[in-house]
Amino acid sequence: MASNVNPTVRRRRLGQELRRLRELKGMTAEEVAERLLVSQSKISRLENGRRSISQRDVRDLCGVYEVEDQRIVESLMQMAKDSRQQGWWHAFGDIPYSVYIGLETDAESLRVYEPQIITGLLQTRAYAEAIVQGGSPESTEQENDRRVEVRLRRQGRITADGEPLRLWVVLDEASLHRIVGSRQVMREQLEHVMELSQLPHITVQVLPFEVGAHAGINGQYSILEFADAADSSVVYIEGVTSDLYLEKPHDVQKYTVMYEHLRAQSLNVEQSRQLVERLAKDYAR
Questions:
Q1: Cα–Cα nearest to 221, from 152, 153, 170
Q2: Is the dihedral of CA 192, 195, 197, 202 positive or negative?
Q3: 91-105 burial string, b = 16+ CB within 10 Å, else e?
Q4: Is the pTM of this model over 0.90?
Q5: Burial bucket for residue 18 (CB in 10 Å: 0-12, 13-18, 19+)
Q6: 68, 94, 77: which is closest to 147 by C-alpha?
Q7: How many CB atoms lie within 10 A of CB 13?
Q8: Contacts by 217-223 with C-beta closer than 8 Å and gap 24+?
Q9: Residue 59: Cβ within 10 Å count
């Protein structure tokens, strides 16, 4: 069990190990909950890594699963301790999608389909400010500023030296035409997209209007993949009040196939750059 400073990923790995121990014991989550006098939902949240887990929780679960190897128990308890550390994003207060940030921080590659706006990792500050303010009209200026700073901090994953995040983005053409902020903001934003798309680890394609109905018609989603074989891929779907994380192989495979269809229906990389460049020039007039 390799050390990992990312608390979100550590919780996820710990939950997977606890699920494995439960299944080896042949017990259901409901049976475990009854033994520990807790709710079944708590056991499920601990196993899917969405809830922080204490060393006492680990000790109690290992007791139920009759884990005799003390080295395993101690290793799991250390993982629980490490998982309660805070990631860099916690310094910005209550971030609604903090679980996603933790996953993105540790991901090796990310595939995104964005139908409405330029995806967050490619946004300029001015564009991000306009998006955050427009999307959160009841939030305070301080809250919106904090969200913008988090978004810009996340972009370090695609500009990092060494092993940056491999990013593949499919943008619906609508996101290029929607004027966010002002025409100048849009010109600068599209020029920024063109600049980033020149990097070898970033691919941007545009899904044109002429395609009509397509595989992403149901909305935005992202697919995160990780270098460590112990970490399964995750499909992330952002919601207004809650987010959805899909990790079952069947679900991930279905969204992966959908993404391949989107890539095939989109303009190729060079055609996409030409369209973005043309629209950027139009905004400059």
A1: 170
A2: negative
A3: ebeebebbbbbbbbb
A4: no
A5: buried
A6: 94
A7: 20
A8: 219/115, 220/112, 220/113, 220/114, 220/115, 220/116, 221/112, 221/113, 221/255, 222/110, 222/111, 222/112, 222/113, 223/110, 223/111, 223/112, 223/252, 223/255, 223/256, 223/259
A9: 14
User: Nearest CA to 281 among 206, 188, 182?
Assistant: 188
Tokens of 83: 């998982």
Helical segments of the chain, H only? 7-25, 29-36, 40-47, 55-64, 70-83, 98-106, 125-135, 141-154, 156-159, 174-177, 183-196, 249-265, 269-284
pLDDT in tens, 196-254: 999 999 999 999 999 999 989 889 999 999 887 667 788 999 887 778 888 888 999 99
